[in-house]
Amino acid sequence: MTRGDINRNICSRCLTIIAACLFAWFLNEAPSFLNGYWVRILNLVAVNGILGLSLNLVYGVTGMFSLGHAGFMAIGAYVSAILVLPAAQKQAMWILDPILPWLLNVNAPFLISILAAGLAAAFFGWLVALPVLSLGGDYLGIATLGFAEIIRILITNLTPLTNGSLGLKGIPPHTTLWMSWGCLAAVLVCTVSMLNSGTGGAMRAVRDDDAAARMMGINTFRMRVLAFTLGCFGAGLGGALMGNLITTIDPRMFMITQTYSILMIVVIGGLGAVTGSIVGAALVTVMLEWLRFVENPIVIGSLRIPGIPGMRMVIFSVLLIAVIIFRREGILGMREFSWSWFFPRRRRKEAEGGGGSFALTYRAPAPLPKGGPLLEVRDLTLRFGGLTAVDGLSLDVEEGAIAGLIGPNGAGKTSAFNAISGFYRPASGSVRFMGRDITGRPPHEVCREGISRTFQNIRLFANETALQNVMVGAWVRRRTYWWMSLLPFVFTDVIREETGVRQCAQELLHRLGLASYANERASALPYGAQRRLEIARALGTAPRLLLLDEPAAGMNPQESSELMQFIRRLRDEFHLTILLIEHDMKVVMNVCDTIHVLDQGRLIARGTPEEIRRDPGVIEAYLGAGAAQKEGA
Length: 633
Known about the structure:
633 residues, alpha/beta, 25 helices, 11% strand
């Protein structure tokens, strides 16, 4: 980090502290110069900010389209209200059916009630996530929408518990400016801390590319369940604050339109942007209130326009459509507000600083003692319906070797890779790595065993920087827990680990010639740099076996020659064993120690490059007579 970066960080922190102090002074003085209406608007901005952050964590950060937020808000609102209402008021309010006896005398302080509300919503969110998150896309949205409607119907009919359609009235108005904005500040700090940690990087990786995330050792299902559960906690917290602000709740408050309002906050602010959710909450809340005038009669001179109920939502929807058309990424997009906007860096210096000195923290795996192959594949068979993609494949890869897997398109090479790395479960056969059976284990567990891979079509986390991509690769070696990242100033191991991971990622970028691209978005890198970045990310897992799927694809002859030296250097410097698929026969023949040849899923030859070059079956099936003569010449 340069002296300029240090100075900018100091200035940013000072400005943040000054802004926080000024806003705290404003909140303290607001009731003295603002009327009750505007105080309520300020409270609604904070509550909607919490709701926007919680949905953004689910939809913007992790990429799950959920329409069930209103249901979790309802759970939080009712739990908090029941806990803070006094016994006498409960007894008087439950008219149709008496309240459940064990709830009559239950009473808790407001802070305890909102925490209980968040935890209750999180618990139900977890229950919903387990079966529902196996779905994706539109199916997930429909399933969560159905859950929200189920919750609303249950609230309406469980009269002894919720007072049914009559709702709850006279809830103590505990949601003050300090309470609502204090809760927002706590949620904001925890959210930013988590998203700046490895957990946040893993969540964004799941959003950008599920398959690549799994190959980096991330249990994508658990990560989605975690994000969904935390989002539900925020929804329950927001619902509790909302109920104690307006002092009355009923089932009609938590219809699908409530979820649409929160979704508007997220979309307008920017998917994935934390500060965008705050900006979106302020705009949506103020605009919805300001547009109420269109629902009242308007007199302009002699012209009288009657008020139309619901017209403000129509106008607001038109404005939302305009935002989506002209700025579909939202106001902030995926960027976060930063004071550095006012202190621009000089790009030349930033690029020069990318390859600076730092502590070397990458730990290559120590060589294994000799004795048996590192990877053993025995009689591996993989079928897709009536098609046999891999038919009885057996191969061994010795430690420290560079082995090739060749064959024409459709021979089953990538299918074999997918079976070895856990993406496909074989119909029969076994895969053993370092003497342990890994047959059929999911990709994130295979990665933890010490196998990493690249893909035929480059699969980077396109919206993340090169440095962030490599840091995701180190997820498999992290030792801290996700909940520690919520309060890193308490659990300082998180900060130390994050510093070490960053240094490791910087070192890998430096050693692979990518230091100048560290802060560039992965999608903006040149093709060759993207290939190397994918390998650097795989190296971040500290693998013993690296699977390279057509690394020379799309390269010109000069780049292919450089790739040959690069692959050898990878093997030697990082103590790797490499198994690669490649169609460029020059690369295969000059790099590999042993070569395995597939034809229609079957292994037809194995041996050294010279043996494969002279094998009649290989010459006839793959190279052709003319190519064989040219190779021999």
